[in-house]
Amino acid sequence: MKIGILSDTHKKVEFAKDVIEFMQKKEVDHIIHAGDIEVVDTLDLLEDSNIPYTAVLGNNDFSLINYMQKYNLFKEPHYFNLGDIKVKLMHLPYYLTNDANLIVYGHTHKFATEVIKDTLFINPGEVCARKRSKIEFCILKKVDKKWKVRYYHKKKFSKENFKMVSVEC
Asked: CA 131 to CA 139: how far, in whole Å?
């Protein structure tokens, strides 16, 4: 199963669209958004992608609370399963306890990945390109008992393709 992970899109709908279209081309099986979405247009992009997705509210998403029933949008921390993978999804990194196979968080705007006792902790970085001037996200796949993480990035407004760094955990 290929899982696309993004976070901190904020109001950068055009950047979110670029990332989601890339994930469609890479044929991800599920998209996870780790919060700070801010605008309904980004939720519409997720919905219209025809890829199952799960998203959580971030600390800047108060205006989206009324849309939780319409979209696959949850309060944090949110637990769910993707096949045999138990996922814990949150925006704020306050619940970083080892109680799932995959722990996804956002908020810091900084890519991070670490395996602790067979659990992958991952922050995909920022789509909004605010702190690092880069659009960032990840696609990951579990192969046997190892995680293959592909971290993608490109400079904002760049016409180039996303660059990829592969990490095996």
From this structure: 21
Beta bridge partners of 124: 111
pLDDT at position 131 is: 87
In eight-state DSSP terms, residue 161 is P
Query: What one-character-per-residue DSSP string does 24-39 give?
Result: HHTT-SEEEE-S---S
> What backbone phi and psi angles, to 5 degrees, belong to 109?
65, 25
pLDDT digits (tens, 9 = 90+) for 72-112: 999 999 999 999 999 999 999 998 999 999 999 999 999 99
Supply the pLDDT for residue 143: 85
Q: Check the CA dihedral 85-86-91-97 and report its sign.
A: negative
What is the rounded CA–CA span in Å between residue 46 and residue 55? 9
Amino acid present at 22: F
168 pLDDT higher than 80: no
Give the helix, strand, coil percentages of the chain, each rounded to 5.
15, 40, 45
Which residues have CB under 8 Å from 11's CB, separation 6+? Answer: 38, 39, 128
Nearest one of 167, 62, 43, 158 to 111, comparing CA atoms: 167
User: What sign does the dihedral 68-31-95-165 (CA atoms) show?
Assistant: negative
DSSP secondary structure code for residue 169 in this structure: -
